## 1
Amino acid sequence: MSSISLLNVFDSISFSWKDFHSSKVLIPSSLFEYHTKWMKVALTASSILCTIYLLHSHASYNDNIPTVNRRFALEPRIFVRLRWAFGSVKILDDAYEKYHDRAYRLARGDADIIVLPSRFINELNRLPQHFISSRKSHSKSLTGYLNGMDVVQTTNHHVKMLLSRPASQRIQSTITELFPRDTDSWNAVEPVNKIVHCISQAITLSTFGPPICDNPKLPILVWLLPYKWRLEQSWKNLEDFVVPEVESRKADPNRVKEPNLISWMLAEAKTDGETDGYMLTRLVGSVIAGGTYSSAAFVTGVIADLIAHPHFLDEIREEIRQKNDEVQGNWDQSAFNNLDKLDSAMKETSRLAPGSLLVYSRVMENDCTLSNGLELKKGQLITTSGHSASMDPNVFPNPEEYDALRAYNQDFERHRAQPFRSVEGEDHRWGAGRWACPGRYIASIVSKIILVKLLDEYDFEFVGGKRPKTSVMHEFVFIDPATKIMMRRKKQNSGIMY
Ligand code: HEM
């Protein structure tokens, strides 16, 4: 019945509840049914409204922290998630412009996470160790429940043991094997995939040591997702290597003294769980998977940025040539550490294309009140926007512009004191504090070993004149592994050999 005919019905009958109760009015049965029906509708509507209100107040927060990327409290997560997946840079830029030095709550779709201004990092670093957990947060962001990485929640054994063991000769022979030798023609090369192999040579050496690191069947665990079944198979293959190896090392005390991650982990284990072969498989697998692609994408990014800015490429090549002459071809750790211009270019690429837009992601393990009165509750996820910090014009003038020698020219003394591998950078490229990236020494030296060799030995061009695209999905920044660049081996190069 329409609302007009409804009004007509009421007009035609003089009705009062009093009369109704004293039964002086005889209501036609059709009208009574009609009323009952509308009362039911009203009751249903009010219970729906009450439920919405209760859900809404449950979903909203009462803590004065503004929420970003959720349009209304009950917005379905899928919309929140999609906006974050494809528009994270804009979301963070808008939030930084609006809130700058204030904390805000970022709706990511999987969870709501408090984004703190970077200035709180020092304060959080001073909290007792058991107050915040980085591993719970890594496990969550890397969907640990899907890929087996959630083992990192139960131990930090691998992080404590991760030390730098440069493996320049292995990298060199992999470069020789995988990159074109031809000096006459250009070849389209997939740099990410090839560099993954070079880096994995170094990482498997430091993780397993010989002879297992040379076994061609050792799986390269690079991709965490999306093919769970493929990953499961890779884990299984890795277990077949690691478990018997662990048992044989446990049986021979001399083998535990070998200089590689597995032996160090066995030697330093405090509990039985920490010597368990299956547990160790997951830990070393997490290290390999986490460090390999990030470093390969980074090295490719440095090369791409330099191809796009040839005057910087020339200057850095000159620095490499001079260093090679100075050390007379003897590339030791200190030679790599003294490439100040290359180091500055590495900082610039990682500032503009970090592995993740969010850094210092942690889970609060205790309630805590920050110096500005902000209350963080146990279980709360927190993070900082490394992206916003590295694009702050007060810290990095003309932040959008690529300037390979920015750090080198801005403050040379500081650049030397806080090189690329240092954790002191303003852009927090390695995170910060106790749980900053433990692989940064490896990542830094391995990247330099590869860059020195490739930049000196090859000419580069973009396919179709276009720089390979850096993509962002959620907070993760990456280069498509199928990306190609043109490479031609130079007829004249310094002939650097490690
Ligand atoms: C350019 C390459 C790399 C970048 C940009 C990078 C960056 C990061 C960042 C930002 C974090 C989080 C730190 C924090 O939240 O404070 C991290 C954690 C970690 N990284 Fe790296 N990383 C790289 C290479 C590597 C390599 C080569 C390895 C291993 C060989 C590695 C192993 C790890 C591990 C195990 C963690 C977790 C530490 C923890 O327990 O909290 N990373 N990395």
Note: Residues 134-135, 138, 156, 159, 162, 203, 287, 290-291, 294-295, 298, 355-356, 359-361, 429-432, 435-439, 442-443 surround protoporphyrin IX containing FE (CB under 6 Å).
## 2
Amino acid sequence: MGRMGTKSPRGGRRAGQGGGRGGGGSKADSAPTFTGRKLAERVKTAKGRTISSKLWLERQLNDPYVAEAKRRGYRSRAAFKLGQLDDKFGFLKPGARVVDLGAAPGGWTQVAVERLKGRGTVVGIDLLPIEPIPGAVLLLGDMREPAQQAKVTAALGGPADVVMSDMAASSTGHGPTDHLRIVALCEDAFAFAEEVLAPGGAFVCKVLKGGTEAGLLAALKRAFASVKHAKPPASRSESAETYVVAQGYRRPAAPPAA
Ligand SMILES: C[S@@+](CC[C@H](N)C(=O)[O-])C[C@H]1O[C@@H](n2cnc3c(N)ncnc32)[C@H](O)[C@@H]1O
């Protein structure tokens, strides 16, 4: 997950680990209000910490989204990114069937459950275990494996209205390698979306700055009525991540009979 804000550079989860409840928020809740912000905190003791770990900790302590996620019981500051994307594009609707790929620790799933308002289905899957979230089905496994995809499909109980992916492999520190890995995960997510999406459905996926790779973008434009890129305010400006939001899925026409 690299420096996405829910893991320390050493891989331990830190922010917003609060219980299994969705933060009880509404659409208006997706933008935290920052009244009474504290002066920037500095980490005084570097004992036993690497420089990157010290900088990460300082950033966490001074990040209003981290504090707000904790206050609202969201398991990650990433929850705000999904809320802000949904505020802009409106793809999470009560009654929907939603797939959350790369769901751990569960911030996006919490927001999806809230916005479905008790109607619909949310299925999350991750390589890492996820603490239960009332109102969601959570699976442990690699979404690229057909057996895991079959479990997601079965849990959905029908065609999906939204397939969303915040998947990321842990950073190698080598930019081009990280880039290729995230592109590959996005292609995997899209391939699965094509299997499960209902006509009119939406696909939301993390990509890197510069937008979606040309080949994938062309495929998305063929498959969806609208394809947009957006970087929600909660996504750190120094982070290369951005999101592609594709809406209005058109099932590919069956090939003409031979
Ligand atoms: C940035 S985190 C997701 C944060 C999440 N959206 C939230 O709000 O809490 C990315 C996740 O993608 C998961 N992931 C990466 N590759 C995966 C795969 N092939 N199948 C399932 N999950 C994967 C990682 O394990 C990691 O937990």
Note: The helical segments are 51-62, 64-72, 78-89, 107-116, 146-156, 175-196, 214-223.
